């Protein structure tokens, strides 16, 4: 799907910048990404 359409082998995600959200908020974002986004890559 995405990989074939854009000839992408992998994607790098950054969830926290130096002045970014607190650790707990960052972990929430990673969990949400895993639950909502990653499953769509397997469709």
Q: Any overview of this molecule?
A:
- By secondary structure, the chain is mainly alpha-helical.
- It is built from three helices and no strands.
- The longest helix is centred in the last third of the chain and has 14 residues.
- The model has no long low-confidence stretch (mean pLDDT 80).
Task: Give a quick precis of the structure.
The protein is mostly helical.
Layout of secondary structure:
Layout: H1 2-6, H2 23-36, H3 38-41
Give structural attributes.
43 residues, 3 helices, elongated, mainly alpha
How confident is the prediction overall: mean pLDDT? 80
The topology string of helices and strands comes to: HHH
Largest β sheet strand count, sense and barrel closure: none
The helix/strand class is mainly alpha
> Helical segment tally?
3
